[in-house]
Design goal:
- Helices cover about 0% and strands about 20% of the residues.
- It is mainly beta and about 80 residues long.
- It has one domain.
- A 3-stranded antiparallel sheet has the order 1-2-3, with no helix packed on it.
- It is globular and about 35 Å long.
């Protein structure tokens, strides 16, 4: 089973789609808030606590997850 998180909420890949681990509802059917700040994403889809970051291709506030993270700077190919 492949698992991950979406805004800090545990998810898993089940039957060709990502679903929330607790109720098996597909991610595209239910939007959940960040587990860290409690807010939904902005209308543009950014994490509420980060907003838009100029030049970033992706960014994450951590959503309360305590695992180590990797921060890359510069061009990544």
């Amino acid at each position: 089973m492949v698992t991950s998180t979406n805004r800090g909420n545990p998810i898993e890949f089940l039957k060709d789609e990502w679903v929330y681990s607790d109720n098996k509802v597909p991610l595209d059917c239910e939007e959940r808030p960040c587990t860290r700040c409690g807010y939904m994403p902005t209308k543009e889809g950014y994490d509420h606590c980060l907003g838009r970051i100029e030049g970033a291709t992706s960014a994450c506030c951590g959503h309360g997850i305590s695992e180590k993270i990797l921060i890359l700077k510069g061009d990544v190919v």
